[in-house]
Amino acid sequence: MDEKKVREAIKIIKSNYPTSGYSMLCEALDIAIEALEKQLAIKPKEVVGGIYREFYECKNCGSEIEPLDIYEDYCKWCGQRLDWTES
């Protein structure tokens, strides 16, 4: 899915929330927004100063990403898409 389209869908849903009487719809939209936001890749946080090694942490859930997990596109704990590109 195109990242630009995902960001636009999130923006549209957030800006067009019903103002009253639609709590179930609002809850469904919150779930949809959360799912869409997890599809947008974020860079993991590099943590320096581990006991004997450097490691990474998911910025979404704070879970440690093991050395072998750097080949995965998603956090195995929360499903957040990860961006491993150099910047």
Descriptive report:
- Helices cover 33% and strands 9% of the residues.
- With 87 residues, the protein is of the alpha+beta class.
- It has a three-stranded antiparallel beta sheet with strand order 1-2-3, with no helix packed on it.
- Helix 1 runs antiparallel to helix 2.
- The model has no long low-confidence stretch (mean pLDDT 80).
Number of helices: 2
Strand content: 5-15%
Q: What is the percent of helical residues?
A: 25-40%
Instruction: Tell me the strand order in the biggest sheet.
Output: 1-2-3
- Strand/helix succession: HHEEE
The mean pLDDT is 80
What is this structure, in a nutshell?
The chain has 87 residues and is of the alpha+beta class.
Write the layout of secondary structure elements.
Layout (H helix, E strand, L loop, with lengths): L2 H13 L7 H16 L6 E3 L7 E3 L6 E2 L22
Antiparallel strand pairs: 1-2, 2-3
Q: Any descriptors?
A:
3-stranded antiparallel β-sheet; 87 residues; 9% strand; 2 helices; alpha+beta
